[in-house]
Amino acid sequence: MMKRHREDVLIRRPVRVERIPDGSPQDLAAGELAQITQALGSSFTLLVDGQLVRLKGADADAIGKTPPEAVALPDKVELEDVSDLVWQTLKTCYDPEIPVDIVELGLIYRCDIEPLEGGEEVKVWIDLSLTAPGCGMGESIADEVCDKVLALPRVGEITVNMVFDPPWDRSRMSEAAMLALGM
């Protein structure tokens, strides 16, 4: 079983978070107590009054933390290297309830790259699934994927499709993910 380290924090300023698992917005007031249950990728998962919420890394100061550092990108990227860079970037996206990245969880069903007209930039197509079809965090995860991949050099467009066929199951997880989760 995975041992989790929790850290108590005080909400230092009003901040908007997303409730887990439905993704609805929730406002936290200054002075509320919370526990950090996960600080992976570019966000924090907090436990506040028995409710899990996701705090964007850009709002890390609201809990007395510094924003997670952005992935260092090379100055020059050749077209043939974009695919590897996209996959590295996808490994920085996490399900807010599970301390494993979406690649190791097996949530990426497709990642195709095609040159755009002119040949200097590419379009990326990603098919992404969720561990449960009713998960309200799907849009948040898809938005994070879009934002991070679109920020990569030479990526001019991205389309992220949520897919549920075939349905996700544990067999899609990597061995590393199973070990991390104590399976």
UniProtKB/TrEMBL annotation:
<protein>
    <submittedName>
        <fullName>FeS assembly SUF system protein SufT</fullName>
    </submittedName>
</protein>
<dbReference type="InterPro" id="IPR002744">
    <property type="entry name" value="MIP18-like"/>
</dbReference>
<feature type="domain" description="MIP18 family-like">
    <location>
        <begin position="86"/>
        <end position="160"/>
    </location>
</feature>
<dbReference type="InterPro" id="IPR034904">
    <property type="entry name" value="FSCA_dom_sf"/>
</dbReference>
<dbReference type="InterPro" id="IPR017776">
    <property type="entry name" value="FeS_assembly_SufT_put"/>
</dbReference>
<dbReference type="InterPro" id="IPR052339">
    <property type="entry name" value="Fe-S_Maturation_MIP18"/>
</dbReference>
<dbReference type="Pfam" id="PF01883">
    <property type="entry name" value="FeS_assembly_P"/>
</dbReference>
